[in-house]
Amino acid sequence: MPPNIGFMLAKATQRFNERLLGQFAERGWGEIRASYGSVLVPLFAEDGLRLSELGGRSRLSKQAITGLVKLCEADGLVERDRDPDDGRAYRVRLSAKGREFRAVAEEVQQGLEEELVRSLGKTNYKALMRALEGVMDL
């Protein structure tokens, strides 16, 4: 089969997520799903985002991000509150459990990135990051 960029990106993502989730489970966080990253990663960067901001940063529809937030909420990782500036909107913030998981997620992520740098070399790693940003901006 000739190389197919879509297939390769999908399989690379699948493998990375397998490694990520495996390490989370080893640390007692087996309930975490790969899809939770669309909610948690933006909140790790800036907690207390409006639901619409969270969807925009995750590049997901309002319906999709709402469903993921509900799943994260059911697992106790986030909480939703009415936005004090606009009662029609919701803000999403990390719960105490979500903040506890953040430290684990950052440690695991850093370890996997260090492994990639060792495997690819620093120059190729940086090139990969630039290339992935380009793909995301298509």
Written description of the protein model:
- With about 140 residues, the protein is α+β, with helices and mostly antiparallel strands.
- The protein has one domain (about 5-135): Winged helix-like DNA-binding domain superfamily/Winged helix DNA-binding domain (Arc Repressor Mutant, subunit A, Orthogonal Bundle).
- Helices cover about 65% and strands about 10% of the residues.
- It has six helices and three strands, in the order ααβααββαα.
- A three-stranded antiparallel sheet has the order 1-3-2.
- β2 and β3 form a beta hairpin.
- α2 packs across α3 (about 50-60).
- The two termini are about 25 Å apart.
Overall number of strands: 3
Mean pLDDT: 95
The helicity comes to 55-70%
**What does the main sheet amount to?**
3 strands, antiparallel
- Helix segment tally: 6
CATH homologous superfamily label: Winged helix-like DNA-binding domain superfamily/Winged helix DNA-binding domain
What portion of residues belong to β-strands? 5-15%
Structural class: alpha+beta
Under the CATH scheme, which class? Mainly Alpha
Which radius of gyration do the C-alpha atoms yield? Answer: 17 Å
> Within the largest sheet, what's the order of strands?
1-3-2
Question: What is the name of the CATH topology?
Answer: Arc Repressor Mutant, subunit A
Number of domains: 1
CATH architecture: Orthogonal Bundle
- The H/E string reads HHEHHEEHH
Separation, N- and C-terminal Cα atoms? 25 Å
Which of globular, elongated, flat, extended, rod-shaped describes the shape? Answer: globular
Could you list the spans in which at least 5 consecutive residues all have pLDDT below 50?
A: none
